[in-house]
Amino acid sequence: MAVVAVELVRPEPDWAAALARAMERPTGVPERRQRPEDRGEDAADGSTPPRRRISDELIWLRDFIDDPRAHSFASESGAAHLWWPVGDADSGETLERLQRLRDRGILDAAGFLLHDESLDDIDLEDA
Asked: Residues 76-117: pLDDT tens digits?
C-alpha cells in the first residue's frame, strides 16, 4: 500500500515555475564549476553511484504525471487529482525522490502537495 501520494492543488501543473525553482541554487550551497572527477571525488566507475540532479527529479515527476501507468503510478481524478506509486515504484526511493522535490520547493512551485503517511507510523509521544 502506497504511503505517499502527490496531489495537484491548481487547475494544471505550472512546469515553468517548477523549472525556475529547480534552477535556483539552494541557500548555502556554493556554485559548482568543476566536474566530480576534477575534484578527486569518486567517478562513474561504479564505486559510488552519482547523485541525481534536481532537474532529473523534475523530469521524472513530469513523466509520471503525464503517463502514470508507464511509470508504475496510479492516478485518480475526482474532488482531487492524485497520483501514487504502485508495485515496484511503491518504495523508499520514490518517497525520497518526492521528499527531495518537496524540500527544494519544486512540488509547491508546480502546484502539487506531497502526502506522506510514513510519518503516521512514528509515535511522537515516545520521542
From this structure: 988 789 999 999 999 999 999 999 999 999 999 999 999 987
CA distances from 109 to 8, 68, 123, 124 (A): 11, 20, 31, 30
Residue 117 half-sphere exposure, CB side, CA atoms within 13 Å?
10
Alpha carbons 19 and 120: distance in angstroms, whole number: 31
C-alpha cell at 3: 504511503
* Per-position b or e across 56-92, b if 16+ CB within 10 A of its CB: ebbebbeebbeebeebebbbeeeeebbbbbeeebbee
Q: And the C-alpha cell for 102? A: 518537496
> CB-based contacts of 15: which residues, under 8 Å, 6+ apart?
62, 110
In this structure, the chain runs to a length of 127
Residues with Cβ within 8 Å of residue 86, at least 6 apart in sequence: 2, 72, 73, 74
Q: What is the pTM of this model?
A: 0.73
Helices (H), 33-91: 54-66
